[in-house]
TrEMBL record:
UniProt GO molecular function: oxidoreductase activity
UniProt name for this protein: Amine oxidase
SUPFAM superfamilies assigned: FAD/NAD(P)-binding domain
Domain named Amine oxidase: residues: 14-406
The organism of origin for this protein: Micromonospora arborensis
Gene3D superfamilies linked to this entry: FAD/NAD(P)-binding domain
InterPro entries for this protein: Amino_oxidase, FAD/NAD-bd_sf
Top-level lineage group: Bacteria
Amino acid sequence: MLAETDVVIVGGGLAGLAAARRLHRAGVPWRLLEASGRLGGRIATDVVDGYLIDRGFQVLNTAYPQLGTLLDTDRLDLGYFTSGVLVRKGDDLLRLVNPLRSPTGGPRTALAGVGSLLDRLRFATLATGCATLPTSRLLTAPETSAETALRRAGLSDAIIEELLRPFLSGVFIERELATSSHVLAMVLRSFARGRIGLPAEGMAALPRAIADPLPADLLDLDTPVAEVTPGRVRTQAGDIRCRAVVVAVDPPAASALLPALATVRMHSYTTYYHSAPEPPLTEPILLVDGDRRELVANTVVLSNAAATYAPAGRHLVATSVVGPTPPPEPTIRAELTRLYGQSTADWTHLTTVAVPNALPAAPPPQGLLRKAVSLGDGLFVAGDHRDSPSIQGALASGWRTAGAVLDELRAT
C-alpha cells in the first residue's frame, strides 16, 4: 500500500508536535508517525498507586519563548516552586532565593553561608547580565565550558562546589560542567526571567496541550518507521510517499534512520520516587547537597508545588541521580535522611525511573545553538540536539524545522 502526503513527521515528541502545529497552521498536508502508543517522547507521566510519576524529574519554565506560540500555559494549571534552592551544608540548611522573585529573601540570601558575600554578588551580576542582555550578545560571546565561564566570572571553588555544581548537574545531567557556556547563559536567563512549575496533571499535560489542536486522524500511534529515504517513508503497514520528511526522534534513533547524521552523545539520570506520610519540607523548593558528596543531584517534595501529584494525606518526594549506574535505593534513602535531617524509615519506595537517553550533551562549540536542520533531498531533522538541550530547544527546533520545510516546498 502506498499512501501520499506532502510532509511526513517521524516522531511524536515535542519537536515533532511543534513541527506539526506549524505545518497545520500553514495548510500543508502532513502526517505524523509515532512508534509508541502515546505522544510526548521523553516526556511522560504514569499513575502509580494514585501518585503522578513523571518519567524522571522534569519541570516547565514559563520563560521558554516557544511556549507562548503553542499554548496558553494557564490551561496547564501550574503549581510553582520557590525561585531558589536549599543547600545542605553540615548541620545547616541554607536558603538562597532569586531576589527578583522574592525581595524579602534577598538579605537572608546575601548572608547565607555558601561561598562568600563577594561570590554571591558576582553570581547575581552574572545572572542579571544573562537575564537582561540581548540573546544575540550572549550567544556571540567567547565560548567555553560552563565551569570555565563560572570561574572566569570570579566565582570561588566553594560556591561552585557547594551550590552551582550540584544544582547545574541536575540541569545539564552531567557533573563535570563541560556543557557550553552559551547553554549556561540561556539556562541562567530562563531561571532569572521565568517561574518553574508542574502541570496539575503531570508533565504529560504539556505534549497533550500542544497536540490538542491537531486532527487525531493525522497522528498515527504504534507506527514504527523502518526506513527513511528521499520522498519515501517505510512502515510495517506500507510506504508513504511525500515531498519532505522530518525526523524528530531521539538522537540514537535519528542516527539509525539518517546514517549521515553525526552521532550525538546522550546523558542519563535516574529519579527515585518516595511516598512520605509527612512532608520533610513544607516549602516547594529544590534541595541540593553542599557537602560535596556528589551522589544526589537534587531532591524535592513535588506535592508541595502540585498537590495533585500525591493522594490526600500523602506526599511525593523525587530524588535524582546523574549518570548511567544509579546506586541502590537503600543508599539513596540514607542520603535523604542526611539531606532532610530527619528519618525516612516510614517512607515508601514507589518506583525508580531510569532515563538512559535523557538529554543531549552540549559541549562547546555550540555557537548560536542553532544547528542545520536540512540534510538535503527533502530530508530534515528536528529535536533538542539541533538547538539547546531543553524543552525550549525541542519546541524551537520543531518550529524552525517546519519553517525550513515550508521554504523548500514553496521553492519547488
